[in-house]
Here is the input.
Amino acid sequence: MNLLRFSRPAGYNYFLDNGFNSLFRDLENENCFVTPSANVIETKEDFKIELSVAGFTKEQITIQFQDNLLIVKGKSEDQPNENEKFLTREFGFKRIVRRFSLPKTVDPELISASSSNGVLTIVIPKKTEDKEKELKEIVIN
Here is the structure.
């Protein structure tokens, strides 16, 4: 019978045990945020942005628009239960932030948003283009 021995490189356990665990501990830090996944769709009339915001209520999300920059922020306040202790925590984000640079052809006054089943949908209408005006002759008096 052959026996195969495996020797881990120096520091291997330290990296896995402390490196990854410190990453997950950072998620509890107030200054740490996650960038949510997004779908951006363009039609003739508007842009539509769909963001994955599972775990956030609409009251916990703010949407701001200034200088053609759309900023979506979310902040949740987890109340720890004294009778429970997480052994592993891989989700449960406290903060999300996502920024979108939009063209000047959008109409910021008509931006709307809705949230359903963990997806935030933002509709950003385009400005109506001036239709080509018919040629008009001007009479000289």
